[in-house]
Design a protein that fits this description.
Keywords: Signal. It comes from Somion occarium. InterPro entries: 6-hairpin_glycosidase_sf, GH-type_carb-bd, GH92_a_mannosidase_put, GH92_N, Glyco_hydro_92, PNGase. This is Glycoside hydrolase family 92 protein. The chain is an alpha+beta fold. Helices cover about 25% and strands about 20% of the residues. It contains 17 helices and 29 strands. The strands form nine sheets. An eight-stranded antiparallel β-sheet has the order 8-9-10-11-19-15-14-13. A hairpin with a 5-residue loop joins strand 9 and strand 10. Helix 8 runs antiparallel to helix 9, helix 8 runs parallel beside helix 11 and helix 9 runs antiparallel to helix 11. The longest helix is centred in the C-terminal third of the chain and has 21 residues. The relative contact order is 0.13.
Length: about 750
């Protein structure tokens, strides 16, 4: 197998040469070219990091709105088992702020999302005692009543621990909780304080992150204590609902647990002893319910109860089968060790020399790289909508967030998972008509930008077209999926596809055209992203030898110019001339204040999803979006008055705080100095961004994680990608040397 080696910017083995812009015929400055890739049959580093999992800090961004998931999962695992807290910012279940209590340990979460709280399904909870007399009926089973504080360390932080594939917590009740995971199942261990007479376990069927459940089912086996059930839940960022199911069984750790000595279903705060089915309860439309079991404690020592939990989107029986197949032995140490080994193999493909490097930077790199492999999630075998032999991936949160950097990072070291994700996306297009955009728990979610699945497929094909067959990706199916996005208008372009009819007619999305197939919003940002989507398609067409299509989509990629108004200026600064602006169908320009949706906006607008917003932009100001012409920056520089004025505009963006580290449209801006032949300024700005906004603390992210993992990893590696091309902008890495091991090269058999 070969290794891909990126040397530092100053290394003599890097090859520089003039390049042409990927879209324009105009020449680009030499500093914007790709590095040559040096290959070596062996390891390029004299020593290697053998246990990169030990460098991962899972608690980065668990406060301050980062919404990161610190629980246990595998690379792209469906199950993400972790603690839930009663924080208003518990989008990934957990909150690193010790003032918030634990409410349960759920099997499904997502990482780094905004919107409503996704998933947080099928919580377990343990009681060492209940009420004054420690009776079954006194147990406070509802989510609001049962919550308990965590123990705190001397640092003031919660007494929680996490490593890739494992999580533990010590609760104020004296109960210790340990969690680990396989792809579709979780294993919990609850260790009760000495002297616990009635160790009890709660299985919560209905409490998701939004309290949205309807149509619950549940059955309890009184002899074994097995609980199986499920419900219907609301999507977190869209109009759909989905059904999910769980199966829980128990075993004593080192002793025979036996059958439960007490059992029953519960509704709210009312456990009903001896009941085994929710039809024995008076439950309503959105009630909280589940099962409560009391076990006999270990008579010869500490009582530790293992809970094995399978999850499925098909049925309770499938959930049980998943648990039995993946965790047949209830062996927490084995499952934990296996998970860590999988993470070490994957993260170990990235190697750095750490001489004279701050350990926090090393941890930040591997922690960021770790989070790039949490989503999308491998739901293969768990698609309730159609049968297929192809992989099925979900948790696309959202392509608008991830297409800019995540898949380019994955392409460097993980082509196999990348290929499986691409196959899954193609299969969704074959059954639903368009590529997935934003998707969670099998439900379509709202699109944020364009049809951003297109540059993801383009990224894969440009990098791996010579290996597509070996990776089981059909080139023809991939291209057909791209053409569906580019040419066929969907019934609702807010959920899939594009508003292509007016796009093809006018070459932009006008401000004053209402069609029944979706909202009339984000017209300018969609125009810019549709143009980049078509650029990605043009690159695939050219590789396939489809010259007419290549020319057609290259021309459409130039449609960004249709929303360029050369006369718009920033209020109070006449030196910044020309801006992307909304436009009417008759060709005349509308006006949006360039400061709109920035910290300098006098109206303090947010530009989030809202059908009433007619400003034309999504989560970014016109000043930021005006720089989003990645496919033809040479033309953008020309429009903005040449290199020096382009640099002045970039400086203005930073100096006046228009750069937004919390949102993806700003991500490429620090590196754009390359295009004006000032790569040193790119290095300065990118390092300024890392120093100002990112660290390894619980407050170490400036906003929702989204694609911040790959974004930060690229910055630390001294690289920035241009999706759907083989180009990287080179900067100075934080390490004397960094290498990526890519299994596909030299391994076509």
């Amino acid at each position: 197998m070969l290794r891909l080696l990126f040397l530092p910017l100053w290394a003599t083995r890097i090859v520089f040469g003039a390049s042409t812009n990927v879209q324009s015929s105009e020449s680009v400055a030499p500093s914007s070219v790709s590095p040559s890739i040096i290959t070596s049959a062996g390891s390029p580093l004299a020593t290697s990091i053998q246990d990169p999992a030990s460098l991962v800090n899972l608690f980065i961004g668990t406060r301050n709105g980062g919404h990161t998931f610190p629980g246990a999962t595998l690379p792209h695992g469906m199950v993400k088992v972790g603690m839930d807290t009663n924080s208003p910012g518990n989008h990934a279940g957990y909150d690193g702020d010790p003032q918030f209590n634990a409410t349960g340990f759920s099997q499904l979460h997502d990482d780094g999302t905004g919107g409503a709280v996704p998933l947080s399904l099928f919580k377990l909870w343990a009681f060492k005692s209940c009420g004054q007399f420690d009776t079954f009926e006194e147990c406070p089973t509802s989510i609001a009543s049962r919550n308990a504080p965590r123990k705190n360390l001397s640092t003031g932080l919660p007494d929680d621990f996490a490593e890739p594939g494992y999580f533990s917590s010590n609760l104020s009740t004296g109960i210790r909780v340990e969690l680990t995971a396989t792809r579709r199942a979780a294993l919990h261990k609850y260790t009760f304080p000495a002297g616990t007479r009635n160790p009890r376990m709660v299985v919560d069927i209905t409490n998701d992150g939004q309290q949205s459940s309807t149509d619950p089912i549940m059955e309890l086996d009184s002899e074994t204590g097995k609980v199986a059930g499920g419900a219907s839940f609301a999507a977190s960022f869209g109009p759909d609902r989905f059904r999910a199911f769980s199966c829980v069984d128990f075993q004593g750790d080192g002793f025979d647990l036996g059958q439960p000595k007490e059992f029953g279903a519960w509704l709210g705060n009312f456990p009903v002893k001896q009941s085994t089915n929710i039809n024995q309860l008076y439950f309503g439309f959105r009630d909280e319910l589940g099962a409560l079991l009391t076990f006999t404690p270990n008579g010869n020592g500490t009582t530790s109860i293992l809970a094995r939990v399978g999850v499925s989107f098909i049925s309770p029986d499938q959930a049980c089968a998943n648990a039995e197949e993946e965790i047949p032995d209830f062996n927490l140490d084995r499952v934990r060790s296996s998970a860590r080994a999988q993470w070490n193999e994957l993260l170990g493909r990235i190697q750095v020399k750490t001489d004279n490097v701050d350990p926090e930077i090393v941890s930040l790199l591997y922690s960021s790289a770790y989070r790039t492999h949490i989503s999308p999630a491998d739901y293969t075998g768990e698609n309730p909508k159609w049968n297929s032999t192809e992989p099925y991936y979900d948790s696309f949160y959202c392509n608008w967030d991830t297409y800019r950097t995540l898949y380019s990072w994955m392409a460097l070291h993980d082509p196999d998972d990348f290929a499986r994700i691409i196959r899954g996306m193609i299969n969704i297009q074959q059954h639903e008509g368009w590529l997935p955009e934003c998707r969670g728990a099998t439900a379509q979610h709202f699109i944020q930008g364009g049809s951003n699945g297109d540059p993801i497929l383009g990224e894969f094909f440009v990098k791996f077209h010579e290996h597509a067959a070996a990776l089981n990706v059909s080139s023809s199916a991939l291209y057909t999926a791209l053409l569906a996005d580019a040419e066929k208008q969907p019934p609702n372009w807010d959920l899939q596809g594009r508003q292509v009819n007016i796009w093809k007619k006018l070459g932009y999305i006008p401000s004053d055209v209402w069609e029944v197939g979706g909202t009339n919003t984000k017209q300018v940002s969609r125009t810019l992203e549709y143009a980049f989507d078509d650029f990605a398609i043009s690159q695939v067409a050219k590789i396939l030898g489809k010259k007419q299509d290549g020319a057609k989509y290259s021309k459409r990629a130039g449609n960004f110019i249709n929303v360029w108004n050369p006369n718009t200026t920033v209020p109070g600064n006449d030196s910044i001339v020309g801006m992307m602006q909304p436009r009417f169908a008759d060709g005349t320009f509308n006006f949006t204040d360039p400061r709109h949706c920035s910290v300098n906006d006098p109206t303090q607008a947010t530009c989030f999803l809202n059908a009433a917003n007619k400003d034309g932009f999504y989560e970014g100001s016109p000043i930021v979006y005006t720089q989003y012409v990645l496919q033809d920056t040479a033309k953008l520089i020309q429009l903005q008055g040449g290199n020096q004025k382009f640099i002045d505009r970039l400086n203005f963006i930073f100096e006046q705080n228009y750069f937004d580290s919390t949102d993806e449209p700003s991500q490429q801006i620090p590196f754009m100095y390359h295009y004006a032949n000032r790569p040193g300024l790119s290095t300065q700005r990118s390092r300024q961004v890392i120093a100002q906004f990112y660290n390894t603390s619980t407050n170490g992210l400036p906003g929702n994680d989204g694609a911040m993992g790959s974004f930060v990893a690229f910055y630390l590696a001294g690289l920035y990608p241009l999706p759907a091309t083989r180009q990287f902008l080179l900067s100075s890495p934080y390490f004397p040397q960094i290498s990526f091991f890519n299994p596909i090269f030299g391994c076509e058999d």
